[in-house]
Write a structure and sequence with these properties.
The complex is a heterotrimer of chains A (about 300), B (about 475) and C (about 300).
Chain A: H1 2-36, H2 53-60, H3 64-96, H4 100-115, H5 118-129, H6 136-143, H7 151-154, H8 156-181, H9 185-193, H10 198-209, H11 211-227, H12 230-235, H13 247-256, H14 261-286, H15 289-292
Helix pairs in contact in A: 1-14, 2-14, 3-4, 3-8, 3-11, 4-8, 8-11, 11-14, 13-14
Chain B: H1 2-26, E1 42-51, H2 56-74, E2 79-88, H3 92-104, E3 111-115, H4 119-124, H5 133-136, H6 145-151, E4 152-153, E5 156-157, E6 160-163, E7 169-172, H7 173-178, H8 183-194, H9 200-212, E8 218-221, H10 232-236, E9 242-243, E10 248-252, H11 253-268, H12 281-289, E11 293-297, H13 302-306, H14 320-326, E12 327-330, E13 343-344, E14 348-352, H15 359-368, H16 372-382, H17 389-393, H18 395-399, H19 401-406, E15 413-414, H20 422-437, H21 443-458, E16 462-465
Parallel strand pairs in B: 1-2, 1-3, 8-11, 10-16, 13-15
Antiparallel strand pairs in B: 3-14, 4-5, 6-14, 7-11, 7-12, 9-10
Chain C: H1 2-51, E1 53-57, E2 61-65, E3 78-79, E4 82-83, H2 87-118, H3 124-134, H4 143-152, H5 159-183, H6 187-195, H7 200-211, H8 213-229, H9 232-237, H10 246-255, H11 262-289, H12 291-295
Antiparallel strand pairs in C: 1-2, 3-4
Helix pairs in contact in C: 1-11, 2-5, 2-8, 2-10, 3-5, 5-8, 6-7, 8-11, 10-11
Classes of the chains: A mainly alpha (about 300), B alpha/beta (about 475), C mainly alpha (about 300).
């Protein structure tokens, strides 16, 4: 018994606060949401159980088709944008621009959207896309005698993807550029002596070296994109109509705009399940087990 | 697996302990300071909250508290009332949400100032107290009778009327002048609208003319976001929004079809900016103030807004006098010839939290705040209309050039229903309007989708009238 | 003679052509980077210009220099009829919020990261999987449940409550990054200390921790920045004026769309961003190290 205690003491102390926090603010909320999903809680905030009514409503909801389609488009395209653009930025600022200070300058600029508070960042974008003649893009069009365009109406999804893409790309950029930096310099040197083309340097040296970070970024961002909606909320609020409404935002709207807390929770619950299933699948495909290796002591 | 269970058990017990400690520290500041100072009057704090920018709504309560304190002194009661004010800034949904959450945490204000249409959910959720006595009080005896409808729900009065407003259609006098209208014709327009001589169709035609002649960039502008203005059209087309007997929201298909047709029509004729429902408010104001639109479905408080920020390209902030020289205000023209002009009001009310510790003091405070002088101070400053005849008679109110001209509108007014499901109805209808304006749906399609949507959102709270 | 002269003349030509050819990818690289970076620079430049000018002509040309918009720094500012709380209260609250968050995050993250990397305990694999999966939880969609928990703990409308929630939401990622840094510390280092007879804890403090300083720095910066930018949680769970933070302060300025004052808004936005920018510029290096957590271990 004593030895068991001793064996457990250190991990328990070290992990105690961590586990308490995630139990309180992840597991417990999920349990609550799972209960709420079976209630008809509305603005009166009463816990009245109503069986599967919320899920029936979800199936017959006339908007759900559009919302699911949007979610797929949003996650898919933003992910593509993030990964490719992030990789491009990483390669451009570390490999092509050898001067550290210049690379750093560009990376700093690209980090700006990421470190800007969301409220400030979306303010800038709103002003950029403003549909009247006073908006930036439309002011530019006016210089060429073109009528103002309603960017957020005609291309709401593009705007949302771009807005999230700019932020996501910098995440990929940091990770990729440091991976590229850790490639031994003689490899590049050897390649240039051999007269290898830039393309083959990218293909044969850089890409293999960033294979692992590439997977990491993809998985990580996939999960964040699926469940985050702060920027969409601030930028288009899901509109016009439901054209940029994604599932996570839909749940928020149902709960906090329509005050259908029960129904909103049911949508959240579905979202949690989808996220879990997808991460389990990706886990299998990418062989994430490698990532965790066994601990190296004891 | 068994080990996992052990872990979970230990974790659970740790955090239950932790929570006990945390909740323990949360509640320590209650008991103290109740005794002591037997002679000094006991200070009772009443919290009052309102939404920006009309802070006079709570400032008036502070002033009313002074009177209440005098009264209490006379009655020999050893109590002093202090009003603590709080001004919320954010969207209306956020404002409601905050009250719900604060109420459940017992941190809500005693007096919650809100639009009358919130009474439904506030009453249904037991958030607020019925205030039927107010109707009998001296201070509220001369309320415009129609206004009581706006605070009545399930047979009770739930709010103390604070103010009401006019939502006139602003018309640009300069454009009419350029169209060759005489000053007299221009100034008579409101009268003609009132009597139903100038109809909604005439308004559309006039807008078309101005646009065709290149005198106005846009014929008509309405609000860019969801709001009460849209639903007045249902009343205008002879429809209903609510059935008080069954306590259900009504989808009046005939009237709503006409409503959608109207917005479809003005969009198709290019009278509105084709991105109207995506525009920023500030750009709406800029467009109107700079004379780019003939008609604007606005609110009387816009006169206040236009004096607050640099909307005019050359003049910056514009004052009341300027607005009256360049704009006229009229009712919404009747849908049919011989009908009457119509408008919709959205009275603001004080509601009282059902958890308040001093219901009697709060109620007396609400009676005192209806004083005509206090009402007028608020009305003149923020461009709202009084709820009592006494308020309408006040010399300062009568002297106001803008308000004096629209005071009659209270007689032509209508209200939104107080039902808790109405915001959902409103949002769905707005989406339908948006869809027809953007040309994404025809009115028929939009109506069909709207019906499906409402059935799903409202369930048995909905009554469909063919 | 002729032949040699011919050759000597052509040789430089050849090299200059090939040099050009070699440079082309670099020129393209600079071009692409420049073009994509320009809009970002312009957006932030607009923020700066509009905060110092009375009006923006056509939306983006500043008119008349003024300090009026910056008045909020030394006097109280009226907005929409009500007086805004002091900017310094908001700044102090934001600072306290981000500071506490950082401290908690670092302490708990380092402890958990160490345990995950070095200690053997039952359920380790499961916990690690969970840590990564937690990212998939739509934590923001769980707002309503989190409200119930905070309320139950008596921490609604308290900055401490939000600090706890925010710490919990970020701790999986922090622990994961820290774990990566611990993984890179050779086991021999720790082993050597143990053999010398030091206690495990002492080894930890004197030998291991200093080795992962860059990791701690990176995690602190990330926590601080994300705390500083936090909006949704604070907005939902904080009521009182005395607890106002900069994000909510800014939100108040845009809340009434009838009364948006772009000059004041951009000045406050800039003020809000200033610490972030300074912090970011001075800690660039540490921040970029984070990638190690995700990137180095192939």
């Amino acid at each position: 018994m004593g030895s068991v205690l001793k064996r457990w003491k250190l991990p328990a102390v070290m992990l105690g606060p961590f586990i308490i926090l995630i139990s309180l603010f992840y597991f417990l909320p999920v349990v609550l949401i799972a209960i709420l999903a079976f209630t008809s809680m509305d603005s009166a905030m009463r816990w009245d159980f109503n069986g599967l009514a919320n899920f029936q409503k979800l199936v017959t909801d006339p908007n759900i088709g559009v919302v699911v389609k949007n979610t797929i488009i949003y996650v898919g395209f933003t992910l593509l944008f993030n990964v490719f653009f992030g990789l491009a930025l990483g390669i451009l600022t570390t490999y092509f621009i050898q001067k550290e200070s210049v690379g750093l300058f560009f990376r700093t600029i690209w980090m700006l959207p990421r470190i800007s508070p969301p409220v400030v960042y979306t303010l800038l974008l709103l002003w950029f896309f403003d549909p009247s003649e006073y908006g930036v893009l439309n002011s530019l069009r006016a210089l060429f005698n073109m009528p103002p365009d309603k960017w957020l109406t005609t291309h709401p999804m593009t705007a949302v993807i771009l807005a999230n893409g700019l932020i996501g790309a910098s995440f990929g950029m940091i990770i990729f550029s440091s991976a590229i930096k850790s490639i031994p310099k003689d490899l590049f040197y050897a390649a240039s002596v051999d007269g290898a083309s830039q393309w083959s340097v990218i293909k044969d040296i850089i890409i293999p070296a960033v294979r692992w970070p590439l997977m990491f970024v993809t998985l990580w961002q996939f999960l964040s994109l699926l469940t985050s909606y702060e920027y969409i909320l601030l930028l288009t609020n899901g509109g016009p109509l439901f054209e940029s409404e994604v599932l996570a935002l839909y749940s928020y709207h149902k709960a906090f705009q329509n005050f259908e807390f029960g129904y909103g929770s049911a949508i959240s619950l579905v979202l949690v399940l989808i996220a879990l299933i997808f991460s389990a699948l990706m886990w299998k495909w990418f062989g994430m087990k490698k990532m965790m290796g066994s601990s190296r002591i004891e | 697996m068994r080990k996992m269970k052990k872990v979970t058990a230990s974790v659970l017990s740790t955090f239950v302990l932790g929570m006990g400690i945390l909740t323990g520290c949360g509640k320590t500041d209650q008991s103290a300071e109740s005794e002591a100072n037997a002679n000094k009057p006991k200070v009772v704090t009443i919290e009052a909250q309102t939404a920006a920018p009309e802070v006079t709504r709570v400032e008036n309560l502070e002033k009313a508290a002074e009177k209440l304190n005098e009264e209490l002194k006379k009655q020999g009661k050893n109590i002093q009332v202090k009003v603590k004010t709080n001004v919320f800034e954010g969207s209306w949904e956020e404002y409601s949400k905050q009250f719900m959450l604060a109420f459940k945490a017992k941190k809500e204000p005693d007096i919650y100032t809100t639009g009358h249409e919130n009474i439904g959910w506030l009453a249904d959720g037991n958030y607020i107290l019925p205030l039927d006595e107010l109707k009998k009080s001296k201070e509220y005896s001369d309320v415009f009778p129609v206004l009581w409808d706006s605070v009545t729900y399930k047979g009770h009065i739930w709010g103390a009327l604070q103010d009401t407003e006019a939502r006139p259609v602003f018309y640009n006098k300069d454009i009419l002048r350029k169209l060759g209208w005489s000053e007299e014709q221009i100034n008579n327009l409101p009268e003609k609208v009132k009597n139903g001589e100038f109809t909604l169709e005439d308004m559309t035609k006039l807008a078309e003319e101005a646009k065709a002649k290149g005198l106005a960039e846009f014929g008509i502008i309405h609000r860019p976001v969801d709001g009460p203005d849209f639903h007045v059209m249902v009343y205008n087309f002879g429809g209903k929004l609510y059935d008080p007997k069954e306590n259900k929201i009504v989808l009046d298909k005939k009237a709503v079809k006409k409503q959608l047709d109207y917005y479809y029509d003005i969009a198709k004729k290019d009278l509105i900016p084709d991105n109207l429902t995506q525009m920023e408010w500030s750009n709406i104001h800029k467009t109107v103030v700079n004379g780019k639109a003939l008609f604007y479905y606005g609110g009387i408080w816009n006169v206040f807004n236009w004096g607050q920020d640099n909307f005019h390209e050359k003049l910056g902030k514009v004052d009341e006098k300027w607005v009256n020289e360049h704009f006229g205000m009229m009712l919404i023209p009747a849908a049919e010839k011989g009908g009457k002009g119509i408008t919709l009001s959205h009275p603001f009310v004080y509601t009282v939290s059902s958890q308040t510790e001093h219901p009697e003091l709060v109620k007396r405070l609400l009676e005192l705040v209806a004083d005509p002088a206090l009402q007028t101070e608020h009305n003149v400053k923020t461009f709202h209309l009084p709820v009592t005849k006494g308020g309408a008679e006040h010399p300062d109110f009568k002297a106001n050039i803008t308000l004096g001209k629209v005071a009659y509108m209270t007689e032509y007014t209508t209200f939104l229903p107080n039902h808790e499901g109405f915001p959902k109805y409103s949002k769905a209808v707005f989406n339908a309007i948006q869809a027809v304006e953007l040309g994404k749906k025809t009115p028929e399609e939009a109506l069909k989708d709207l019906e499906v949507q409402l059935k799903n959102d409202l369930g048995d709270q909905l009554k469909i009238v063919e | 003679m002729e032949v040699t002269s011919y050759r000597s003349e052509t040789a430089p030509v050849m090299t200059s052509v090939s040099k050009w050819k070699k440079r082309i990818p670099f020129i393209i690289a600079y071009g692409v980077l420049g073009l994509t970076t320009l809009p970002i620079i312009l957006m932030y430049l607009w923020l700066l210009l509009s905060s110092f000018s009375e009006q923006m002509k056509y939306g983006f040309i500043p008119v008349r220099f003024t300090l009026e918009n910056w008045k909020f720094l030394w006097t109280s500012v009226e907005h929409g009829g009500s007086e805004l709380p002091s900017i310094w209260t908001a700044t102090w609250n934001s600072f306290v919020f981000s500071g506490t968050l950082t401290i908690l995050e670092v302490i708990i993250g380092v402890m958990a990261g160490y345990a995950l990397s070095r200690l053997e305990f039952p359920g380790r694999q499961a916990l690690m999987k969970t840590t990564l999966l937690l990212h998939a939880f739509p934590s923001i969609a769980l707002l309503i449940a989190v409200y119930y928990i905070l309320n139950f703990m008596g921490l609604f409308d308290s900055l401490w409550g939000v600090v706890l929630v925010k710490t919990a939401l970020q701790i999986p990622m922090t622990a994961w990054i820290v774990k990566g840094f611990f993984d890179d510390v050779p086991w021999d280092v720790e082993w050597a200390g143990l053999i010398d007879g030091c206690s495990r804890l002492k080894v930890w403090f004197t030998i291991v921790l200093p080795l992962i300083k860059p990791g701690i720095a990176a995690v602190s910066i990330f926590s601080f920045l994300s705390g500083w930018s936090e909006f949704l949680l604070l907005y939902t769970f904080i009521l009182s004026d005395e607890n106002v933070t900069l994000a909510s302060y800014l939100q108040r300025l845009i809340s009434d769309p009838n009364l948006v004052n772009y000059g004041l808004l951009s000045a406050v936005s800039l003020f809000y961003m200033l610490p972030v920018l300074l912090f970011f510029i001075f800690t660039q290096k540490s921040l970029m190290q984070v990638s190690v957590g995700g990137g180095k271990r192939v």
